[in-house]
Design a protein that fits this description.
single chain, 100 residues, mainly beta, SH3 type barrels, six-stranded mixed sheet, 2 helices, 6 strands
């Protein structure tokens, strides 16, 4: 299946436990390999709270999910991990997101 970033943005992201966690907000590319490296996912409020993702009243919490955690892409993006498995991709408190 061939997809553009425009087609992918806004698609629902579902954990392997069947729970909707949010929607695709952006794609990050590796410019050397010209391949998708990760997806930025805008989290649903309840999921952001459960994971402890930083959010404000006006800005949803987001998480960057490496493509290795994506199981399939169709009408929705299905992850190979459950919602709780996303804790491993959240930056540690006080650590820059670019450091992990």
């Amino acid at each position: 299946m061939r997809l553009s970033d425009e087609n992918l943005r806004g698609r629902t992201v579902i954990g392997s436990d069947g729970r909707a966690i949010g929607e695709v907000a952006a794609l990050f590319l590796d410019s050397n390999a010209w391949s998708v490296e990760s997806l930025q996912v805008k989290l649903r409020k309840d999921v952001a709270d459960q994971l402890g993702a930083a959010r404000t009243m006006f800005h949803a919490g987001t998480v960057e999910i490496p493509v290795r955690l994506v199981q399939s892409v169709g009408d929705a993006v299905v992850l190979a991990v459950p919602v709780d498995g996303l804790r491993e991709v959240l930056p540690v408190e006080g650590e820059s997101a670019s450091m992990h």
